[in-house]
Amino acid sequence: MPRIPAPPLPKALQPRPKRPGQDVEAGAATPVEAGITVVDWLDERTALSPGIRWLMWRKVPRGINWAYTLGSATLFAFLNQAVTGVFLAMYYRPDAAGGAYESIRNINDNVFLGQFVHGMHKWGASVMIILIFLHMGRVFFYGAYKYPRELTWVIGVVLVILTLAMGFTGYLLPFDQRAYWASVVGININAGGPFVGPFLSNFLFGGADFNATTLSRFYAIHMLVIPGAMAALIGAHLYLVTKLGITAPPWLKPGADDTDHALAEAEV
Amino acid sequence: MNQAQKEAYLREYSILKNEGKPFFPYAVAKDGAMACIVMVVIIFLSLLFGAELGPKADPTTTTYVPRPDWYFFFLFEVLRVMRNVPKFTPMATIGVPTICMILLFLLPFYDRSPERRIERRPIALAAGITTIAAMAYLTYSGAHTGSPNSVEIKPPATLSAAQLQVWHAGADVVGESGCLACHVIGENGNNGPGPALTNIANTVPAAQIASTLRNPTPPMPSFKDLPADKFNDLVYFLSTLQ
Amino acid sequence: MTWRKTRSEYTADRDRPGAFEGETITRRRFMSGAATATGALAAAAFTLPALGFAVAPVFAPTSDTWQEVGPVSRFTDSEYLPEVITLEPGLGEAGLAIAYIRLHNLAIDGPIKDRYDRAIAISSRCVHVGCPVRYVAAARSFVCPCHGGVYDFRGVRTGGPPPRPLDRFYTLIRDEQVLVGPRYSVNDELRRFSPRDPGEPLDGIGQFLYPAQPSSPPAPPGAKS
Lengths: 268, 242, 225
What we know:
heterotrimer; A: mainly alpha; Cytochrome Bc1 Complex, Chain C; extended; C: alpha+beta; 4-stranded antiparallel β-sheet; 4 helices; elongated
């Protein structure tokens, strides 16, 4: 059965090599040799190691360049948003009557590292949006959305829209002037859709107009509904990426080797 | 793509994949380096700009000029595009973004050619560049839309101190009188329905500016009821716009 | 009869996945239906109430409230006064709004429609996308700072993207006090409609594309359109 290698032990814990003349003991000398390390214990019960091999030691095609890191960079920005967001939620109060604004003021002015973590969340949003569009551009120009990766693309477009929706719902939470008016305008834009538009805007407001539940509605959507959907879709996206493999750069042909090799052949 | 093309692609891809290196640690090392760069940028932005909190939300304001965050500037600008056909406003607010989103969703289903190299996909290349250029242009012009309640151009360098005072007073009258709702001066105001005023003094002398302000062509309202000093400041300011 | 033999009633004969000895097609079908139905029922039991709970405000009618904004003597029929009114009680500053108020002017507004038309109260919410409009006395116009909507003295659009005139509030004059009531929208002929969201035209096909919302407050008794 395939096994992932045991983690390297620090020097102090490694068994010393046998001195010449020392007796060779029967059986396993150390727990490591006996196969009862933590990793082995876990693998015996979960059988995860084939999955990890499938995920981590799969081959990626020749010619992968820096443009291919944009997807994982977007994922990293999402993790940054998730972690900083969870900790901001510990200090935030979704209270439109004044509590929301005061709690953000408190985060900025009084909480240790408050302004820094708040800033990481705020600027992380911008960085994530830039990265997701760059990633989308890479996929578009490399033709990577074509067979067999159509579904990966569709999920990716949903993730772009959800990311913009995160930006939109996150606007309102600090409840300053910019937040309030940008949200009111954004909700009213939804009202312009024929037939369903007015219902959609009333759903977002939680009533006919801005009211006491609008802010908590946005808060719940921003920190529970959309992130949950995004996490699930990112999982599906990554599964498909691993299953179908990362696209090769479109200009590479199999057999034809890298440029310097090809040049050397041409000289001969 | 037909069945033969699909099989050819899969065959070609499996060879390229076998010629490659394992994801861990080769690709992950690159991803990790990129993640470090991303975090450096985020931390740098956070330390440099912080998380500024504006004045508290106030629905009763009559002077605040709402502007979105930079990544919605393109949408903000699309909303201004429809200003001359107001009955089609929902087309701009909902129609255009929805159509773009559907086109983006269905991309792999209408672009079914097996060709992947962008230099051999002229339509995709043109569409991609057009989209990027349009987004960049809309974002840029959205970012450069000044408030219609104030003038942000610089006064001419030749003015004396006394003239400068009148000039600033006139600029304030422009800001508070709603001129910029229909006229553009520099980066402020709306281009239409009225003509741009950025260089108005080149074509219209001061006396004619004053008479137009008193007896304008509709729908422009008359400003003959302004106090005399404000009216003179306004005419002086407009007559310096060259 | 040969047909019956090939269509065996046992799942094992028909290569159903997971078939076992003695399982019939009908039994498999019944159990599949039961599994799907019980699962769906249990999921619906928590999804539907939660969804209804979240969607309910869309259909809950708002009550109409009347509030005093000041004595009639403060207002004129030639100039607007901005007055702060409360749209959402219990929300502090976030529940307030501005109404521009003046008295009915026969020369500008034509004949008085009904008892809710003796004062004109115009909402400061731009009908393009909802930014706060400002009344500019010098130009006798309402100007929106977002996308450049301009409205004349009656609140009718003269420039920019707004698709209809500014919204209004029903008003009453009682005991020498001006009262402001629920909001309503108007079309280009200033005909009254139940309140619509910004961005929704009310002329031509617009009134059918954007129907009245169940959450709108009812028109006060005796109000004419």
